[in-house]
Structures are given as structure tokens and as C-alpha cells.
Design a protein that fits this description.
This protein has a single domain, classed as Fumarylacetoacetase-like, C-terminal domain (Fumarylacetoacetate hydrolase, domain 2). The protein is of the alpha+beta class. A six-stranded mixed beta sheet has the order 4-3-15-8-9-12. Helix content is 16%, strand content 33%. The longest helix is centred in the C-terminal third of the chain and has 11 residues.
Amino acid sequence: MSFVIPAPAQASLPVAGTTDRFPVRRIYCIGRNYADHAREMGGSPDREPPFFFCKPADAAFAVSGETPTEWPYPTMTDDLHHEIELVAAIGRGGRDIAVADALDHVWGYGVGLDMTRRDLQAQMKAQGRSWEIGKAFDHAAPISALRPACDTGHLALGAIWLEVNGQRRQSGDLSDMIWSVAEAVAGLSRYFELAPGDLLMTGTPAGVGAVTRGDVLKGGVEGIGTLALKIV
């Protein structure tokens, strides 16, 4: 068999401390998974059923943990927002996964940013259309090197934070999640059959806001790692 055009490269992320790579199959995101962020976005902080959206696999953009990696400002927006998140990497697939078993399907974790063209997202909301144009653009998921869960453990609490140009913008704790990682993985598996290589971005705490060219973003999740990027 041969392809009629060159096959696209496999999207992947580095594994911390090794030369290994984690192949990315799909990127799923859970919306409004911290009560304070739900409030700031005009939503309910109640424990309503989780909702999910996607980014393309090749939106995954590997960034450094210390020295800021240059990250390109996207087209067609004047209101680009940051959303710091814990990223769960799926190592074993399945569907209709029980909450009690869900963490057995998580290979490891990283730190990510759900970058959002907020103006385009708002336009789509107002017109009753999909958010995709605001969430699924090129390089829309900067993510740190991943660390295996056998090294980090499965964290139920720990600080999550983001600074822009040295000023703290977002602060929260993993324990503030409305839906835990296990619950989110289980819920997602009812809508999609999960497979090795899937990523789940698990939501962001309050404090999201606009960034522009020249800004330096540094953030992290306690027990997992950090990321750093400069918007160019």
C-alpha cells in the first residue's frame, strides 16, 4: 500500500527525562471544571454533567518547563486568552469505564494551556454555533513534557497556577475540580471510545485573561511540572 500524498507526521510530546515520545491521537477538553472559572464565564458552579470539546492532535505544541519556548500568536483574533490546565495522558483505552477503574487508564500527566481565541468563541456562542474556531486552531495546546503516573502518582490535590510577565494571573488547587480526573475520564468514555495516545485537558481555575505578543507565560501544577512560553 502507498499513500497518494505524503502522510502527515505523527503528533507527539516528549516524555520528561528521556528521549521517548508520547504519540498524540486525540485531544479532549472538559469545560468549566472549576467552580470559580464557571462563575467568571457566566456559568453555573453546580455539579452539572460535564461537557467536552476537542482540539486536533497536531494542535499539541511541546514547550519547555523553564526557558520560554517561542509560541506563535494565532491569526484572526484580537482577544487571545490563557487557560492553565492539568493534562492527563491515556495509556489504555476503553469505553464506559467505571470511575473506580478510570485512573488505571491514565499513563501520565503534563501541564498544558488551553489557548482560546475568546472573541471568536464569543461570536460563535452568540450565533449558536460550535466553539471550534475559537479553540481548535494551530498550536492551540501548548503542553509540557509528560511524566508517567508511576513517578508522579495520581494527584487529587496540589497547586495549579499561571504567571504572565511575572504577575500571578491564575491560582487554584486540583481539589477544586468539580469533576475529578477519574470522573472526567469515565464520563468522557461514555461519549467516545478512548484509546492510547488520547489527551484530556482537565479544566482551568479562575483568572483567565488576555495575552499578546511579547508576553511570557509561566505556569505549573504541583507534583507534575512547569511550562514556559513567549508569545511571538
